[in-house]
Specification:
The protein is an alpha+beta fold. The protein contains 15 helices and eleven strands. Helix 1 (38-50) crosses helix 7 and helix 11 (324-339) packs across helix 15. It is globular, with a radius of gyration of 23 Å.
Length: 425
Amino acid sequence: MPNVRMIADGVRLVSEQTDRFKTGRITVSMALPMDEKMAANSLLIFLLKRSCKEYPDFSLLNGKLDELYGASLSASVSKSGEAQVLSLSLTFLDDRFALADESIAEQCAKLLVSMIFSPNCKNNSFGSENLAAEKRLLIQRIEEELNDKRTYAFNRCISYMCANEAYGKDKYGTVEEIGNVKMADVYSAWKNLLSTAIFQITVVGSSSADDVADIFAKKFEKIERTPVKPETVFYRRGGHFNRFEEKFPVSQGKLVIGFRSGMSNSKDNLAAVTVMNDIFGMGTYSKLFMNVREKLSLAYYCWSRLIASKGLVLVESGIDTDKEKKVSVEVLAQLSDLRNGKTDPEVLDSSKRSLKERHTFTTPEGICAWYASQVLEDEILTVEELNAEIEKVTMEQVCEAAKKLLIDTIFMLSAEGEEGAENAD
């Protein structure tokens, strides 16, 4: 069980003490509302990763990471419900392998504190060249996602489905917004981050996290905070059903069907919805895989994804464009069968075993990601607790969860022309 404690207003530390791994990890997750500052926030987290006041350039920072037995630093931007989450992480050699009984975790915590609270910022500027470089890199990230047609179709379906909801926005902001960000915007975003973001520090390693907690707590004591907790709006059903289509010069179409799950919050009926989604389209035993892909050969791939933090289920498939109607009809037919209990009883046991295996984390990164994804939850849910609830799920509960799954949006990326590489998807 993790140790959970509040170390400041809107700041929680979640730690799991384990000697299962040769490495440890600290992740600092910072949740902010999805608003007009998203582009500046995205640029900020990558600027914070570049350097800090103590190690003001790339070579000095890398030298420090080398001193920490080759610690690895990463930054990311994600969505958790209708919150933009900025993350800064360090993976490092576990303390029990360090020389002279030194605490690598403690040193990594100090480095993360330096990067977040004492960035390389002079006269309210992170450096014009640094900002320009991060703009180029962030726009490149977005363009790479646009070039990945599977990711593009998935994101477009969400943008149409949640057009009037904050969740419909891109996690980074738009290319135009990124291009328009000024240095003053980034500096303001940093000040706003320290004062209003919901923080979670997640620590995994063999040592106690008490020293790490003290290091962060002392820094937050000096910050005047008025935390703002982003709230996510859940719609149990959408408005009118809509279909959207775009054409690209590719040889394989991408069909994404968006459903509302009927969840009223991220934990509402979670175990049953998780099993239902798995039987519907996640496992190799699922109805979509066994029927749409294997038996009927209607799709190159066909699977479903549950986004519990927003209460959405999306079915993704790669198809020949002229088979869109057949695939859509068959996906809904499989859902109808699931609602009516037309499923091999053995599949329920297979699903439970598979989900339990997926929840068996083999790296500290996996454990950190599980807890960090709950940055906005009032109570931390462990995998053991979720697995115990999953084990209790009955086929009747699966059918009831399937009945609440309501189609909202279809997005079709239609193929026109040739692009041979798409056949590999």
